[in-house]
Design goal:
- By secondary structure, the chain is an alpha/beta fold.
- 36% of the residues lie in helices and 22% in strands.
- The protein is built from eleven helices and 13 strands.
- The chain has a nine-stranded mixed beta sheet, with helices on both faces. A four-stranded mixed beta sheet has the order 3-2-6-7.
- Strand 8, helix 5 and strand 9 form a beta-alpha-beta unit.
- Helix 7 packs across helix 8, helix 9 packs antiparallel against helix 10 and helix 10 packs across helix 11.
- It is globular, with a radius of gyration of 18 Å.
């Protein structure tokens, strides 16, 4: 797959993740002991930036890190991973974001986030990077940084000829005018339910949620459905892209792998349908490993899974 000219701009969060693997997730007020601990790196913005980078795309990430010890760890980690320091802004007053994650034996997780410096990424910060921020071909963003900053990017990027992808995570209600700004919207079942008002429990309700979002002004919706795959909904079109069969170990960052690979494939000139297949493969590979960024697949791994699945079928 030959990369097309240009790059992906990812604006979003970067966190240090503290993960405990337990046999089962605790109930409210309960302590579950005996787990294994690991420190790793996450944040939906950083995850998606590195997912796109590993999938073969040049990426420019805009994020805000603290100058605390976690911020220094994050900064060095992202540079080592191949991202430019130019977009990694620093905050002298607030520590970097932290995520507390619990993962059970089936790969299900519970996550709590202290956003820290992520919530201080402002419109003025983006404007300070104006030339680079709007020189890419694709904008990929999420909802772990201030909404006004996300909205500004979504408004400005199309004026610069960029395709916009909004992964509306974590789930929250969004005004119709913001929903309509994203050319591609990529919610999961929970997020699609919140945005559309239709509770997604199966393919039929997912389709109805997607059609409701189209009616609200969204152009293209891709609802990620875990083991069922991904549902593409556009005006007059509904198409299911089945998931790749794998054994799930940890679902952390699966959605981020999907979004990063989707953006990378679109940058490379693939059709949206082809890009969704690659994104599904990336999400499937991600859940076979533990952790967030450690579980993100490379372009070669994505290629191999697609070839392997085709040969079996």
């Amino acid at each position: 797959m030959t990369a097309a000219p240009g790059h992906i701009v990812v604006i979003g969060s970067a966190n240090v993740d503290f993960t405990v693997k337990v046999d089962r997730l605790p109930q409210m007020g309960e302590t579950v002991s005996g787990g294994d601990f690991r420190l790793s790196y996450g944040g939906k913005g950083a995850n998606q930036a590195l997912a796109a980078h590993l999938a073969g795309a040049p990426v420019f990430m805009i994020a805000k890190l603290g100058r605390d010890p976690n911020g220094e760890l994050l900064f060095r980690h992202l540079l080592t991973a191949g991202l430019s320091p130019e977009g990694l802004l620093r905050d002298d007053e607030v520590p970097s974001g932290v995520a507390l994650i619990m993962v059970d034996a089936q790969g299900h997780n519970l996550i709590a986030v202290a956003p820290g410096s992520n919530r201080r990424l402002t419109v003025a910060d983006v404007q300070s990077l104006d030339t680079t921020a709007f020189s890419g071909r694709i904008l990929l963003t999420q909802l772990e940084v201030p909404l006004e900053t996300v909205e500004y990017m979504l408004r400005r990027a199309p004026e610069a000829g960029m395709t916009t992808i909004l992964n509306p995570a974590p789930g929250r209600h969004l005004a119709e005018n913001i929903l309509a700004l994203a050319q591609i919207l990529t919610p999961n079942e929970t997020e699609a339910s919140l945005l559309s008002g239709v509770t997604v429990t199966d393919l039929d309700t997912a389709q109805r949620a997607g059609e409701r979002l189209v009616a609200l002004g969204c152009q293209t919706i891709i609802i990620t459905l875990g083991a069922q795959g991904a549902l593409l909904v556009r005006k007059g079109e509904v198409q299911l892209f089945p998931a790749f069969p794998v054994t799930a170990v940890d679902s952390t960052a699966a959605g981020d792998a999907f979004n990063g690979a989707l953006a990378a494939a679109l940058l490379a000139g693939l059709t949206l349908e082809q890009a969704i297949v690659r994104a599904n493969a990336a999400g499937a590979l991600c859940v076979t490993k533990r952790g967030a960024q450690e579980s993100l697949p490379t372009r070669e791994e994505i290629d191999a899974l697609i070839v392997k699945t085709k040969s079996v079928s």
